[in-house]
Design goal:
With about 80 residues, the protein is mainly alpha-helical. It has three helices and no strands.
Length: about 80
């Protein structure tokens, strides 16, 4: 495990007490939910980047692709 930080959050007293009664490890739950939220946000960002790239690349027709590839090969 890497280094850790203290995260302070306010929750309703009933939630904390009920979690303790049920033996729920709040830290584990918070970490899992945060990891999932981060993963989902990263997926959204990747989808956005992929969409932008698709828009850029779809604007190039087959002849332009051919010209670009040949130009790249000739430059070697």
């Amino acid at each position: 495990m890497g280094s850790t930080v203290i995260l302070s959050v306010r929750v309703r007293r009933e939630l904390k007490e009920r979690a303790e009664q049920l033996g729920i490890n709040i830290r584990d739950i918070v970490e899992k939910v945060l990891e999932n939220a981060i993963r989902e946000k990263e997926r959204e960002e990747m989808r956005s980047i992929a969409s932008e790239l698709r828009e850029l690349l779809c604007g190039i027709d087959d002849e332009e692709w051919t010209r670009l590839i040949r130009g790249n090969r000739d430059a070697r």
